[in-house]
Amino acid sequence: MIIITGAAGLVGQNLALMLQELGYKDIVAIDKHAGNLEVLRTLVPDARTVVADLAEPGDWERLFDADAVVVVLHAQITGKRPDAFERNNIAATERLLAAVRAGGARFLVHVSSSVVNSVACDDYTRTKRGQEALIRASGIPCCVLRPTLMFGWFDPKHLGWLARFMEKTPVFPIPGHGRYMRQPLYIRDFCRALVWAIEHRPAGAVYDVVGAQRIDYVDMIRLIKKVKGLRTWIVPIPFALFRGLLKVYALFSRQPPFTADQLEALAAGDDFQGVETDAAFGFRQTPFEAAIRESYCHPRYSRVLVER
Q1: Structural domain boundaries, residue 46
Q2: 62/65 Cα distance (integer angstroms)
Q3: Is 203 exposed, middle or buried (0-12, 13-18, 19+ CB in 10 A)?
Q4: DSSP secondary structure string, 254-291?
Q5: What CATH number corresponds to the domain at position 202?
Q6: Which of 154, 201, 241, 264 lies 20 to 30 A from 44 at CA?
Q7: What pTM does this model have?
Q8: What averages of pLDDT result for each successive group of 10 residues across the chain (308 residues)?
Q9: Per the domain annotation, does 192 fall within a domain?
């Protein structure tokens, strides 16, 4: 049995779909977002979906038997309040680990983040470091994968949100000069690494999984525009003004798609070093333009939306 926590998000939706494609049958998908779990159920009809908040006690705590491999995906990624990050990244993980110890699940595959190696200092970075530390110190056999920024099918945030926004507006603003180097990772490639970890269970291993191509933010936006055949005008906005506009927008939006903290992280100048995926996991990453085209032009999956 494979149990996926945070299954209704970007990674979980894609991982469950890939496991189905590979013939896996016993998949349990846990998430507190009932609507997005329903999307997963339509994509992966054989999966068992469980609506549950891991920060709260419930029947979900009895799912982790000795045959289970648990893929830990749940995370608070964006938000306006520090307590939300503490609750969903730290408290929920503590309760999950207690349930896994009680049930005796055989292995954990934890999806951490490249931000644990970042120079950034924000609520997400701090609590993701804490979450990874909890799992590695738990005594439960586990491995850790730390991906960079991901993109692909079913993405309600990040590049997925930007691609849909670009379709709707004649003017697309970018912060400052836009020359902020990114190392975006195609979600289908990352899921291939996760499947390898599920099957091989390399206890104690830590893998930094980085997109193979370094590309500036503005060039990513231009490539999305090209692939989608859009005529949008890309306009630079002074960095300080852009940051101020994000802060004002956050006052009126319960879930802003892009925050001032994320803007600072964008400009932080991180250059992550990762494993060679062909040597570590047995596959070569999809060329970036081909991955962008598949992500945003696929006749079915590029139009499947989940809520933020």
Answers
A1: 2-155+183-213+269-286
A2: 8
A3: exposed
A4: SS-SS-HHHHHHHTS--------HHHHTS-PPPPHHHH
A5: 3.40.50.720
A6: 201
A7: 0.89
A8: 95 97 95 95 95 96 94 85 90 96 94 82 88 95 94 86 87 90 93 98 96 91 92 92 83 73 74 91 95 92 82
A9: yes
